[in-house]
Each structure stands twice: as structure tokens, then as C-alpha cells.
Amino acid sequence: MRVWDVDPGYLNRSSLLGEHRELHGIVAILKDGKRGYSRHPETLRWRGYGWALSQRHRLLAAEMALRGYVDRSPVRLRANPRQWPEIFLNPPGEQLLLLAGKYRDRPPGRIPLPRDNQQLWAQHKYSVLARDPAAYRRIGRELALSRDGEGCDELALRLVQLLRRPPEAGHLRNAIQHMWGYVAGYSQLSGPEINRLAPATLLREIQRLALIHRITYLAESTALGELAAWPGQQPGK
User: Fold this and answer.
1) Comparing C-alpha atoms, which of 1, 111, 124, 115 is closest to residue 63?
2) How far is residue 158 from each of residues 91, 93, 98, measured CA to CA in Å?
3) The DUF1722 domain covers which part of the protein (predicted)?
4) SS3 of 38, please?
5) Is the pTM of this model over 0.90?
6) Cβ–Cβ contacts within 10 Å for residue 152, how many?
7) Are 235 and 200 in contact (CB under 8 A)?
């Protein structure tokens, strides 16, 4: 049983659908009193964190949608809003190493497992910009000034913690507009039309164009999937 803490974009098809299934198993234990793996460490660390479990499910569903799957099983637990488990069964940096070993002879996820801090940061940049522009600038400077930057474990943990924060509306629009710059040349929408679009609508257009035209920098970013997963960003909102 495993609910990962790293972005779902790193998971391959089997791991993504497997986590979705196992998360629902944890929900059945916590909400409906099913016994099963009720004493499993993964179940225990999510006890009392219903909101976070629901949000992890939204992140999985957003990544599934990006890969053509339709989720019809929402999770609506609300306990302890905006609070996440402090315990990791494996720290985020170690989770990336576990996935690298797991996928050695298997298909990878949408986002390549990072070789170093620079690649790890490049994959997360717009997700961080949507939450904290000061952190975005600070991390970029730190990595530029250091040959190796932080140890991957430290940076991976820092990024997971940042991405657990909901995007702020103004920062979200700014990040999405930065992303739009990579696909604008493929769109028939005018500047005024773009400015009138809600962020969720513009993000869906970015997703579509990035995947159709294989815009690698966006297609291998956490932001392409996870920014759609927050309340107010789902289709129709």
C-alpha cells in the first residue's frame, strides 16, 4: 500500500492507477470503518487528515485526466483543512530514488525522474511561482550560486512542502501566463481573448497545446498537471 508524496507526474501508468486504487482503500478504512489494512503505516499517517487525502486524490485525478483517464470517484473528506501529515514513510528524495529503481526496466512517468537538482527545480518552477514568487527567486539564486545546489533530498522535501500550499489567485495567473508564452505561437486566440479567459480555461488550453506540439519544458513540468487540481481550477469552475 502506497500513497506517494512526490508529484503524480513522476508516476507511470501502473503506479498512478495503483495509487488511485489504494487511496480509495484508505478512504474506505477511514470513512467506512473497513478493516483491511487499518494498521498499515500508510493508513495510520493519513488518519485525521481527510482534507489532505481528498487533495491528494484531486492531484491524482488531474494527472489521470492529462493522460486521458476519467475519474468518477471523488473523495470528499474534510478533516483538518490545509494540514498535511508530517510523517513520510520515505522522504521525498528517497521516493524519487525508489521510483528510479522501480522503473529501471519499465515505462517511466510523464515527468522524467530528475538526474540532479537543476532538473528537479526546472520541473517544479512554475508550481512554485504559482504559490510564492519570493521562494521562486530565492531557490533559483541558490542553485545558480552553488555548483551542486542543495542535496537532492533537501530540495525535494522543500518542493513537496511548497506544493502542498494552495496557489494564490494572483500568483497562479502569473504562473499560467508564463506557461502560455511557450505555446502562444500555436494558438489562434488573440491577446484580448487570452486576457478574458479564466485561469482554469487558459490552463486547459496550455495542456492541450503542450501535449499536441510536444513542448517538452511544459510537458515535463509539475505545473501542467497539478495546477488544475486545486478547488476553483477544476473543469467548469
Assistant:
1) 111
2) 11, 10, 18
3) 125-183
4) coil
5) yes
6) 20
7) yes
Indicate the SS3 state at residue 203: helix
Residue whose entry in the numeric block shows the C-alpha cell 533537501: 154
**CA 178 distance to own-chain centroid:** 18
C-alpha torsion 212→214→216→217, nearest 10: -40
Question: What's the chain's length in residues?
Answer: 237
Cell of 27: 478512504
Could you please report the per-residue DSSP string of 113-124?
PPSSHHHHHHHH
Q: Where are the domains of the chain?
A: 8-92, 114-229
**pLDDT at residue 149 tops 90:** no
Phi and psi for 132 in degrees, rounded to 5? -155, 90
Q: Are 75 and 54 in contact (CB under 8 A)?
A: yes
Of 16, 35, 33, 58, whose CA–CA distance to 237 is shortest? 58
Query: For residue 94, what are the CA distances in angstroms to 78, 101, 128, 158?
Result: 29, 11, 21, 13
Question: Which pLDDT tens digit goes with each residue over 85-144?
Answer: 999 999 999 999 999 999 999 999 999 999 999 999 999 999 999 999 999 999 999 999
3-state SS assignment for residue 169: helix
